[in-house]
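Subject: for your reference before the review

Hello V.,

The reviewers asked for a structural picture of the protein, and I figured it would be easier to keep everything in one thread rather than splitting it across files. Below is the amino acid sequence we used in the manuscript, unchanged from the supplementary table.
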Amino acid sequence: MDFQQTIPRNLVHRAAVSEVFVTDLNILGEGRFEIGAQWPRRHSFFGPLTPASHDPLLYAETVRQAGLLIAHRAYGVPMGYSFLSDWKTYDVDQAGLATVGRPVDVVLRATAHDVQARGKNVAGMRFDFDCFRDGHHIGTASDRWRCVSSAVYRRVRGEHFAATPFQAGVLPTVEPALVGRDRTGDVLVAETEVPGVLALRFDPDHAVLFDHVVDHVPAMVLAEAARQTALLQVGDPAALPVRAEFEFESYVEFDADCLITAEELEVAADGARVVRVVFEQNGDTAAVGTLAMRLS
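And here is what came back from the structure prediction:
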């Protein structure tokens, strides 16, 4: 594995080179891959948010980038195709996230499943990942997605195609410290007049979350909002979401409020507090996240 430089940014749908974490790809055989990645010592958004641990969502973002790289390089998905995430899950050992005062090289081993085709082109699949650090297995992940050409995407999106990021209604965010943040611009949840109901709130100019042009709220924005909601639910801003599952049922649009509710489920066998977070827009469920929070 080569960790000397990152791969071209367009292969992981990033505008900024600094937001690319994947460094290399080896094709091991049919449907089997090995991907190199490096986690920076410090990142403007992914932290570390707590001094001793890298952010589990940095791991999730690394997995997202690895899947895109495989799709383009190994399966020939054309650049310019739009990727639509249906389902994501990850599970990472807290010890495997430990910071060591220098960048961390990790290796992902991926297998492809349920490959779908539309004509001669790949139309979607599921990747399963195992993550290794210094030869030790530290986590797993899965990502199921579909992809469509720009022409199909334009038809699917209709009047929302090429929408510009903006907030339909802006409410003040919760205090950054309550969700483990230092900057208001990194906070994605706001209180509403209804007890127990939050609203999605974001900065359309955020350099990481809105790194490139999008016409709907990205999945990773919803994942971070789910994490912040779970932090409020457990009352520990330093808790780590060591496991999570996200289901995306529809696009979250810019032109209507997105409301967020949370409920705590049964405590996991390892003591993690499990929180289910639901995103609702225009009366319909748009996404659901279930996060296992390891308290500090």
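For the response letter, the relevant points are probably these. The domain at 162-294 is CATH 3.10.129.10 (Thiol Ester Dehydrase; Chain A). The radius of gyration is 18 Å.

Happy to draft the paragraph if you're swamped.

O.
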